[in-house]
Amino acid sequence: MNIWMLNHYASNMYFDKAGRHYFFAKKLEQLGHVATVFCASTLLNKDQTVDTGAKIWSEEKADGTSFVFIKCPKYKSNGFDRIRNMITFYRRLKPVARQYIRKTNKPDVIIASSVHPLTLVAGIQIAKKLKIPCICEIRDLWPESIFAFGKVAETSFLGKILLRGEHWIYKKADALIFTKEGDTDYLKEKKWTTDQGGDIDLKKCYYINNGVDFQTYQKQIYNNIFADEDLNNDSYFKIVYAGTIRPVNNVEILVDCAKLIQSYKGLENVRVFIFGEGIELPKLCKKAQEEGIKNIIFKGFVERKYIPYILSRASVNILNYSQEHYNWKRGNSSNKLFEYMASGKPVISTVKTGYSIINKYQCGIELDECTPECLAKAILRFREMPKCEYEEYSKHAYEGAKDFDFNILTEKLMSVIRSVKDL
Question: Looking at the domain 2-211+405-421, which fold is it?
Answer without folding.
Answer: Rossmann fold (3.40.50)
